[in-house]
Structures are given as structure tokens and as C-alpha cells.
Write a structure and sequence with these properties.
This protein has helices at residues 12-19, 21-37, 57-66, 83-96, 117-127, and strands at residues 2-7, 42-46, 73-76, 101-107, 131-140. By secondary structure, it is α/β, with parallel strands linked by helices.
């Protein structure tokens, strides 16, 4: 079974600060459309950052628009916990749920480079023998990272 995984939703606020609120809103709209049309399980990893009136609008709209329209497995990542430990637990959860194929989106993705939460999770899942595809249209990145 293939799952859609959105990585670090709260980091959409940081993406808004970097790329602009309108660009973050466009990414949030693409994420929303993908989540709502996805026919398998959807997991959203979220840090649960406080809402910031200036930068959080795209994230807020995404959450309000998707959370009651379909079942989503919300996974809280508390950044006081080691990211590597979280990824191991998350991979175990996916395995327990019968997931072996994953499509990733979210923030941050650096095409062709190491680092960034999307890249980190892709590498971790691949090491655990998941088949992983990053949907670049569903990722936040910046021009300097390419």
C-alpha cells in the first residue's frame, strides 16, 4: 500500500517567511489538493508550532480545509526529541500499518543535496527498504539549495 506523507507542516510558516506568504499559500493549496484526492492513507508530521498571524495563514488554511474532509494520521514531532529517533519510530508505524511505498511532500526538500526534513525521511525510509518517491510539486525548497 502507498501512503502520502507530508513532512513538517509547521515549517510551512518558515517557508512563508523565506519565500513569501503567497508562495507558501500556493504550496499549501497543492498539498491540500493532493491530500483530498489521495486514495490511500495520509500521514502529516507536524511540530504544532503556535499560530503566528503573519506567517501561519497558509498552514492554518490547509489544516482547516483538510482535517474534517478525510481521515489523516497526524504525527506530532516534538523538536525536543531527536529527529533520527522520531524517524525510526515513524518507519515502524508505517510498517505496522502495512505501508511499504511512500510519496513524500513537505518542507524542506533540497534537490540533489543532503539535509532537510524531506530528504532525511526519504533516506531513512529507503534504508529500511521502503519504496519512496518525492513529489517535488509538494515540497518547499529554495533556489540556493538546488
Amino acid at each position: 500500500m502507498r501512503a502520502l506523507v507530508i513532512v513538517h507542516l509547521s515549517s510551512l510558516d518558515a517557508y512563508a517567511r523565506h519565500a513569501g506568504v503567497e508562495e507558501a499559500a500556493r504550496l499549501a493549496d497543492r498539498l491540500e489538493a493532493a491530500v483530498l484526492r489521495w486514495e490511500g492513507p495520509v500521514y502529516v508530521i507536524d511540530q504544532r508550532w503556535p499560530i503566528d498571524r503573519k506567517w501561519s495563514r497558509p498552514r492554518w488554511n490547509f489544516v482547516m480545509n483538510v482535517q474534517i474532509q478525510r481521515e489523516i494520521f497526524w504525527k506530532h514531532f516534538d523538536d525536543r526529541i531527536d529527529w533520527d529517533i522520531f524517524m525510526n519510530h515513524f518507519a515502524a508505524r508505517l510498517t505496522a500499518d502495512g505501508i511499504r511505498n511512500v510519496t513524500l511532500g513537505g518542507v524542506w526538500f533540497h534537490p540533489g543535496k543532503a539535509g532537510g526534513a524531506v530528504n532525511d525521511l526519504r533516506e531513512k525510509l529507503e534504508k529500511k527498504h521502503f519504496r519512496v518517491v518525492v513529489d517535488k510539486s509538494l515540497t518547499g525548497t529554495w533556489a540556493g539549495a538546488a
